[in-house]
Design brief:
single chain; alpha+beta; Beta-Lactamase; 6-stranded mixed sheet; 14 helices; 41% helix; binds adenosine-5'-triphosphate; binds magnesium ion; ATP binding; histidine kinase
Length: 467
């Protein structure tokens, strides 16, 4: 058969369901089509048959074998290695002459290479990655549409696979503000990420993820899509944070123990003499001076409260653990919470657990936790906001969950990691001790505090073991 090189190229590229290649008579592969490339996962142009398939027979010998076989009615077969696995494949081989160069060429058609029944190692590897319980995988095409997603990614991201396959990524994550999205469209422009730490909150839980992404290119170097792989490192991160926090708390404890009394003693005498002064002002009718002493006394009380919280953070105070119902404690606090809400023009909704579970706690401390967290929620909202408190009992885990949700602006990602740190505050008059004290109290009860916030509204969840 006489063909020009261009005609040959067009011919093999048009045969999309046959694995075809062309070699010169020195065994070097000069062309291969896309069907072959996708079946073996690489382009073999420029390689020899030995390099590409560990096929040691020269093309001329393969051609002779093929001719002989067809004359005797046998099916010609060759042994090739694909992905390290040796297989016998039927083949056809034709000798050609390139009319433009005069060279002898061989056209090789490898049969059954495209057969689906036997997955290649690469396909098996891809399949097991998608099922790996520890790995989140997202496969995206060049139009930024989701092509496949692993089971673990669905679970962590709170998505249902059937609802999102072949859906544009923008639509899947449309409820999340652009800057908080797990995958950015700029990925397809080559903005790939490595070891990128992301916090993700699905409907129930907050996860710390470590994310890698990269582009997928075809053998011509064109971008055909991208993939994202992530691992859940929540436990690792919280362990790391706990160690850091314990270090900080231990340090604060030492300072607190050393200085708290030294601060309190002079305060007591200042307070005593101020009260004497106040009485003298009252007796001599000096109203203005009396009002100054009132302000000074209020401020001294504030310092006293601060020092008490400081002490609570640093070392264990005498605690009175007792059996009590969470609902009863919350109900006791409700008038105070409602009062605070009224001042800010927000409403409070409370849904108690019907079967009021008993927990072991220090009543005053538990009240302090409820008040601190509700106060934070109320302070975060503008007029018209709603603070919803709801209790749920999980008999399997033997825990009561108390969700305290506000409709405030939420907590930005760069702040959320710090809110439990002592002295971290974004408020002009805040001490930043509220949440760290709450965390210490709840941890001492064997419980946990979690926070979920995605740019609108915040939910603090307290989990307390029940009896
Ligand atoms: N519900 C919430 N919505 C938005 N931000 C919050 C919420 N709860 C806490 N925060 C953030 O966490 C920070 C720390 O809270 P924390 O209760 O420890 O201290 P504070 O409220 O600032 O001070 P204090 O409790 O002494 O008044 C707050 O300053 C605020 O930025
Ligand atoms: Mg607070």
């Amino acid at each position: 058969m006489d063909l020009s090189m261009d005609e040959l190229r067009v011919f093999i590229q048009c045969s999309t369901n046959q694995a075809l290649l062309v070699t010169d008579d020195k065994q070097r592969i000069v062309m291969c089509n896309s069907a072959l490339t996708s079946a073996i996962g690489k382009c073999v142009v420029g390689e020899t048959l030995i390099q590409a398939f560990k096929l040691y027979d020269p093309a001329s010998k393969l051609h002779n074998e093929c001719e002989k076989a067809s004359k005797t009615g046998r099916v010609p077969k060759l042994r090739i290695s694909v992905y390290g696995r040796v297989r016998e494949s039927e083949y056809e081989m034709f000798r050609l002459r390139a009319v433009d160069t005069g060279e002898t060429m061989y056209l090789l058609h490898i049969k059954q290479l495209l057969s689906k029944e036997e997955p290649t190692i690469l396909q098996q590897f891809a399949g097991s990655l998608m099922k790996d319980v520890n790995l989140g995988v997202l496969l995206i095409d060049a139009d930024f549409t989701l092509i496949d997603i692993s089971d673990m990614a669905c679970r962590v991201l709170g998505l249902n696979k059937n609802d999102i396959i072949n859906t544009p990524m923008d639509r899947i994550f449309s409820s999340v503000p652009l800057e908080h999205r797990l995958v950015q469209p700029s990925l397809l422009e080559g903005v790939i990420v490595r070891n990128h730490a992301v916090s993700w909150t699905n409907n129930r839980e907050r996860y710390e993820l470590l994310l890698d992404s990269n582009l997928l290119k075809d053998f011509m170097g064109r971008t055909v899509g991208a993939y994202v792989i992530f691992k859940d490192v929540t436990n690792l991160r919280s362990l790391e944070e706990q160690v850091q926090r314990s270090d900080r708390l231990a340090m604060i404890g030492q300072i607190a123990a050393g200085t708290a009394h030294e601060i309190r003693n002079p305060l007591t005498s200042i307070k005593g003499f101020l009260q004497v002064l106040k009485n003298s002002f009252v007796e001599s009718g000096m109203e203005k001076e009396k009002s100054y002493t009132d302000i000074m006394l209020t401020e001294i009380n504030r310092i006293n409260e601060l020092v008490s919280e400081f002490l609570l953070l640093g070392k264990r105070k005498n605690v009175n653990f007792d059996k009590m119902s969470v609902t009863a404690v919350m109900s006791e606090m409700l008038p105070i919470i409602n009062n605070e809400a009224l001042l800010h023009g927000v409403t409070v909704q409370y849904e108690s657990a019907s079967d009021a579970p008993q927990v072991i706690a220090d009543r005053e401390m538990l009240k302090q936790v409820f008040l601190n967290i509700c106060k934070n929620g109320i302070e975060a909202m503008t007029e018209g906001g709603v603070l919803s408190i709801s209790e749920k009992v999980d008999m399997d885990e033997r825990k009561v969950h108390i969700d305290i949700h506000d409709t405030g602006p939420g907590i930005p990602n760069f702040v959320i990691d710090k809110i439990f740190d002592p002295f971290f505050t974004t408020k002009e008059n805040g001490t930043g001790l509220g949440l760290s004290v709450c965390q210490r109290i709840i941890h001492d009860m064997g419980g946990t505090i979690r926070v979920a916030s995605k740019g609108f509204g915040t939910t603090f969840t307290l989990c307390i073991p029940i009896l």
